[in-house]
């Protein structure tokens, strides 16, 4: 395993982390007696495999159903000083409720403390306010730190880059969990801001959110050769020293195996990546046109400026990925979340275009004339049954 200094925490963080949202029994709390023996055995085997290969960062959240309860059966069996344990609790308007929720997490984990506590889902100015205002959630965390129950505090986010940067610039957090990988590099400004504050940087779900890379399109497989799409994406992320760890949402012990192939390649990233990156860009240009590839994002309206709150930027992005790399299944999964995921994936689909006039909000775009047509094509290609966030299923 390779390790990187996790910002000002000074923790030696493995470049891969064991995420805790895929091996749990249910997304809702249930009595411990209802957890099947087979499910628990699989979780414990997954954790043992992680630790065996050097992945000693175990990451979960109060919102991950039975994950904490199940981890509480296995984590106390390891030497505590050998583990880096993270859980996450969503910001609350009522700081007392935040404290009660954390106390439940710690009880389920059967630990005296967590190394990392993330404020889960600072996605909006409102959730940031709940976190940093006097008497808010961060004040509770400072008390927990004084009590020895939390070592370091960070935040996770699915929010827009400006909110992430604003949160980072408060200088109140030791690390950040965010999205950033080859197909979605929008948050680079946030990573750069975290670097300036000497914060740890943890990449959320690079395999699933990075393109359903565990079941990639054949076209993407061909473009990423000789690497698998998983190894390519891991190497792309880790070739940037500002990135410290990638979350692997393992559902079973074998799910680590493909990722581990990346470790021997990190020192050669500057040699291995350029031909693959060139092929990916060339394919996008060949299928979408160079002018579109280089300027499609220019002067797009903000969500709140768009009639019907159609998430134009995300829809065009998903259409690009579907056309250029055959990531249709991925596009469908993300597109059909729109309208159902609140501030975790905001905005609406483009199914009501015939009732809306986008002319004014697109006036500054160099592609104002073609975007409505592409939005319609995207809905025809990607539209389908509504999708809910995993935690809502």
Automatic annotation (TrEMBL):
It comes from the Bacteria. InterPro entries: AKR (IPR020471), AKR2_Oxidoreductase (IPR053135), NAD(P)_OxRdtase_dom_sf (IPR036812), NADP_OxRdtase_dom (IPR023210). Residues 37-167 form the NADP-dependent oxidoreductase domain. This is Aldo/keto reductase. It comes from Nostoc paludosum FACHB-159.
């Amino acid at each position: 395993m390779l390790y990187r200094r996790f910002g000002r925490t000074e923790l030696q963080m493995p470049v891969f982390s064991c995420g805790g949202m895929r091996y749990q029994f249910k997304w809702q709390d249930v009595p411990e007696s209802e957890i099947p023996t087979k499910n628990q055995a699989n979780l414990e085997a997954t954790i043992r495999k992680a630790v065996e290969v050097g992945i000693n960062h175990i990451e979960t959240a109060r919102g991950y159903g039975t994950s904490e309860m199940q981890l509480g059966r296995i984590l106390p069996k390891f030497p505590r000083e050998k583990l880096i344990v993270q859980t996450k609790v969503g910001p609350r308007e009522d700081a007392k409720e935040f404290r009660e929720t954390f106390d439940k997490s710690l009880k389920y984990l059967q630990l005296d403390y967590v190394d990392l506590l993330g404020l889960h889902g600072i996605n909006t100015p409102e959730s940031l306010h709940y976190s940093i205002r006097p008497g808010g959630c961060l004040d509770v965390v400072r008390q927990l730190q004084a009590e020895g129950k939390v070592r370091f505090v960070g935040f996770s986010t699915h929010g827009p880059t400006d909110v992430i940067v604003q949160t980072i610039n408060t200088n109140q957090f030791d690390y950040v969990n965010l999205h950033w990988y080859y197909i979605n590099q929008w948050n680079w400004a946030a990573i750069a801001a975290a670097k300036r504050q000497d914060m740890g940087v943890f990449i959320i779900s690079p395999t699933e959110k990075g393109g359903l890379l565990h079941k990639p399109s054949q076209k993407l497989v061909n473009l990423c050769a000789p690497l698998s799409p998983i190894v390519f994406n891991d190497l792309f992320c880790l070739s940037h020293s500002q990135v410290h760890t990638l979350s692997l949402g393992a559902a079973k012990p074998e799910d680590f195996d493909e990722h581990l192939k990346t470790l021997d390649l990190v020192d050669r990233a500057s040699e291995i990546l350029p031909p693959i990156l060139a092929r990916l860009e060339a394919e996008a240009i060949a299928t979408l046109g160079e002018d579109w590839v280089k300027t499609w994002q220019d002067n797009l309206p903000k969500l709140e400026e768009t009639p019907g709150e159609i998430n134009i930027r995300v829809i065009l992005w998903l259409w690009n990925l579907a056309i250029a790399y055959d990531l249709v299944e991925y596009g469908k999964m993300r597109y059909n979340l729109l309208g159902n995921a609140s501030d975790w994936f905001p905005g609406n689909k483009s199914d009501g275009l015939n009732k809306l006039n986008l002319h004014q909000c697109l006036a500054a775009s160099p592609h104002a004339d073609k975007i409505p047509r592409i939005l319609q094509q995207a809905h025809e290609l990607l539209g389908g049954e509504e999708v809910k966030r995993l935690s809502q299923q």
